[in-house]
Prior knowledge:
The complex is a heterodimer of chains A (141) and B (59). Chain A has 141 residues and is an all-alpha fold. Chain A has a single domain (27-140), classed as Four Helix Bundle (Hemerythrin (Met), subunit A) (Up-down Bundle), CATH 1.20.120. Helix content of chain A is 94%, strand content 0%. Chain A has 3 helices and no strands. In chain A, helix 1 runs antiparallel to helix 2, helix 1 (2-55) packs across helix 3 and helix 2 (61-91) packs antiparallel against helix 3 (94-140). Chain B has 59 residues and is an all-alpha fold. Chain B has one domain. Chain B is built from 3 helices and no strands. Chain B has helices at residues 3-24, 27-36, 43-48. The longest helix of chain B is centred in the first third of the chain and has 22 residues, at 3-24. Classes of the chains: A mainly alpha (141), B mainly alpha (59). Chains A and B meet through helix 1, helix 2 and helix 3 of A and helix 1, helix 2 and helix 3 of B.
Amino acid sequence: xxxLVRKINIVLIMMFFVLxxxxxxxxxxxxxxxxxxxxxxxxxxSMESVADLQKKGYxxxxxxxxxxxxxxxxxxxxxxxxxxxxxxxxxxxxxAKNRLTTSIGLVSASLSKLVERVKPYLIESxxxxxxxxxxxxxxxx
Amino acid sequence: MTSKEVVNLEVTLAIALLEIALEKGxxxxxxxxxxxxxxxxxxxxxxxxxxxIKPPDEY
Lengths: 141, 59
């Protein structure tokens, strides 16, 4: 009877570790997916804002070219991360996981550079919008 | 990627989405939330990520 209880305990402990491992894999996949979806949405919003600000005259052609070259680094990093994610989904091994982690780090870093480059134009246009609103309010009052 | 970094990105996204929701309406926000709440990630989901963004000169 003692032997049976011990075997059940060992099986339960092994099941716990297997479940924990599966859970860790699922969390890693979900986190990776969520980061890439979030990064894609932020990139889209940033680039749509850039296009809009260029139309409004806040961004000149040469500045747009510089922004595009920074954005291209992000775009390439993002595509590389998806390649790494596909490879991880198929292989599920440590090497693939490390490559995915590294490439997501590059996505995050290149997105930060892009957002930092675009932010001053957004602040400038927002400041101008607020100034015009204030003038309207003063004029109306 | 740590959980803290994920949360930071999601907070940035949430703020950006709230701002755009005021301009373009709610559907874009609902679509993003659905993407973030997926229970299981399939290979097709991963491949679908490619179409979520365009090259810089196409904006």
